[in-house]
Specification:
The protein contains twelve helices and eight strands. By secondary structure, it is an alpha/beta fold. The structure holds zinc ion. Zinc ion binds next to strand 1.
């Protein structure tokens, strides 16, 4: 995969007449993409509240600068502790910046290994702060994002949880594009902890380069699968790497002819009406689920791989639970 794929619309200096000729591919035709952030208020080690506040401010300022109407999915377990009020204030900041919020389970449980009743109880506990916070602003919390994208190992587990979601006014928030940001973010946080800004910069550059390749793959895979270009939904995490990279990230997405819309708007694409009936242990994104339904392959052999130096944890890395930061 390469980023050198020509873009028809990115060149400057086209005349008005040429712009008209290009109209079928004008930016109005660009595919919609919804940008979603998981593990709010802050993905990864939370650290001092001041760090979380800075991360949130940088991320939200970038989203506003880039006109990205994002949604953040909250793990309310993060709000516990002596700084509860300040952490809740970070969620209020998201809403006050014009973003919206959703439920990501109270404690980020794996549905694959959690009994259904306990999983439902965790989802119910996950809305206690966020839902009233949104209601106070005239908003309704109506999206649920499964941690690790795990949707249930049996038809019974899946349908029982989905019945709970429906009864509580939730819609599942699918994912159709991801860029392994959590892997790069782990290395980035380690570099910052070592006070190594040069290495952090190198990691951020590798992250953006990888994102370009991943975006190209997901767009091509979706086109191949559906025979047209659907609205896409990108999974990111609320981490320092994204807070520092948001402008460059927006440029990468725009370069690939994507335009930012809300999650609600992306879901009006008919692709999201394709049945997802997968049951099993895997936390797959929705192109994989649609491929199962449609009995069509995805071009896995060309999926870009995260570079080894990013994927392999350093021996000196601060201890963190890698399994807790899997995609989703
Ligand atoms: Zn998550």
């Amino acid at each position: 995969m390469t980023m050198a794929r020509p873009t028809r619309y990115g060149r400057r200096g086209v005349t008005a007449a040429a712009a008209l000729l290009l109209a079928p591919g004008s930016p109005a035709r660009a595919e919609p993409i919804a940008v979603t952030f998981d593990d709010l208020p802050v993905a990864g080690p939370s650290g001092p509240i001041g760090n979380s506040r800075t991360l949130t401010q940088h991320l939200l300022a970038g989203l506003r600068r880039q006109h990205i109407p994002a949604i953040g999915f909250v793990n309310e377990v993060q709000l516990e502790g002596p700084e509860r009020a300040q952490r809740i204030a970070l969620l209020a900041d998201w809403l006050d910046a014009g973003m919206t919020l959703g439920n990501h389970g109270y404690s980020h449980l794996s549905f694959t290994v959690t009994p259904t009743e306990a999983y439902i109880a965790d989802a119910a506990r996950g809305e206690r702060v966020t839902r009233p916070l949104m209601a106070a602003r005239g908003l309704i919390e109506h999206f649920y994002r499964h941690p690790y994208l795990e949707t249930g190992t049996t038809v019974d587990a899946r349908s029982r949880f989905e019945a709970w979601l429906a009864a509580h006014g939730y819609r599942v928030a699918p994912v159709t594009m991801e860029n392994s940001d959590w892997r790069f973010a782990a290395r980035y946080d380690e570099a910052l902890a070592r006070h190594d800004p040069a290495e952090a910069k190198r990691i951020a550059a590798a992250y953006l380069s990888f994102t370009g390749r991943a975006v190209a793959w997901y767009r091509a895979a979706a086109l191949d699968l559906l025979g047209r270009r659907p609205a896409l939904i990108l999974l990111l995490h609320a981490n320092r790497l994204n807070a520092a990279s948001i402008d460059a990230l927006a440029r990468v997405l725009r370069h690939h002819q994507l335009r930012f819309v809300t999650l609600d708007a992306a879901l009006t694409d008919p692709a999201y009406a394709i049945a997802d009936t997968y049951t099993g242990p895997n936390g797959d994104q929705w192109l994989t689920r649609w491929a199962l339904t449609l009995r069509r392959p995805l071009p896995w052999s060309t999926l870009p791989a995260v570079p080894d130096w990013i994927a392999a944890p350093r021996r000196s890395a601060p201890q963190r639970d890698q399994t807790a930061h899997r995609s989703g």
